[in-house]
Amino acid sequence: MTGTIDAHVHVWDLTRASYPWLGPDAGALYRNYAFDDIAPTLADRGIGGAVLVQASDEAADTQVMLDAAAEHPEILGVVAWSPIDDAKQLTADLASFDGSRVVGIRNLVHEHPREWLDRPEVREGLSVLAASGLPLDFPTSTRHAIADVVTIGSEHPDLTIVLDHLGKPPIGGTPEERDEWRMLIAEVARNPRSVAKLSGLYAATGPLDSWTTDLVRPFVDDALEAFGAERLLYGGDWPIAVLAGGYERTWAAITEMLSPLSARERDAILHGTAERVYRLATTV
Fold first, then answer.
1. Contact 76, 2 (CB under 8 A)
2. Cα–Cα dist 223/241, whole Å
3. What single string gives the DSSP state of each residue in 132-165?
4. Rounded CA separation 200/209 (Å)
5. With CB atoms counted within 10 Å of each terminal CB, which end of the chain scores lower, N or C?
6. Cα(111)–Cα(116) distance, rounded to whole angstroms?
7. Which bin fits 58, alpha (ψ -120 to 50), beta or left (φ > 0)?
8. Secondary-structure class of domain 4-277 per CATH
9. Which H or E element spans position 105?
10. Mean pLDDT of 229-244
11. pLDDT digits (tens, 9 = 90+) for 147-194
12. What is the largest CA-CA distance in the chain?
């Protein structure tokens, strides 16, 4: 068995795909990142499985991930890109993904105006995705976009939605900001088909690495209260974690925050929820 699963890992190849958000100003992120770069770190921490998550809205990025998965049996799944605003292409892609390691679909919806999600083409695409049984990973740029997850869930009750990075909580912000975020994720959690990733939990203002475990812990506690452990899953958010103090630091923080939980609760967050939501085959 794989033991712990990291359900949010990125790889990218600047020579094979285009990443419009990733330029020279991205610092240490502006280079190729292969699974070989993180595999030893995962193995050293008993993390035997990983899910790769798209980093660009184009097919070439998906192929980079699928090629990595073909080389590494510990890559249990790929959250691929397919255009959710083009139902015909999405249908064709879903058929082509059948039998592959594709376990979910993600678009960089936070790169669009929020009104983009209201387009009838997007609604049609989400209906196609819901019928396929694959979940939708949903990234947000601000906590306010969490409200869009609530809307999508109500309009597509058969769609499983994975809220990435807990919807960008205001870590290091004001009590009022935390209250607003907590209210929003509670609304998301009322949809039983929604889950959330404990991933990318960094400082919301200032340097990305200016978070501390004590600053992050209240938001993890809020997520546990809203979703319960059985609807949360761990993600290391590598290589973005490089800018937030490194994978080792973020892993140490999450394990410390989860230590008071029961073994059953930790198992759910560290592998069980990912296995269920992404329908992972966990023997390698």
1. yes
2. 20
3. HT--EEE--SSGGGHHHHHHHHHH-TT--EEEGG
4. 11
5. N
6. 10
7. beta
8. alpha beta
9. strand 102-106
10. 98
11. 999 999 999 999 999 999 999 999 999 999 999 999 999 999 999 999
12. 47
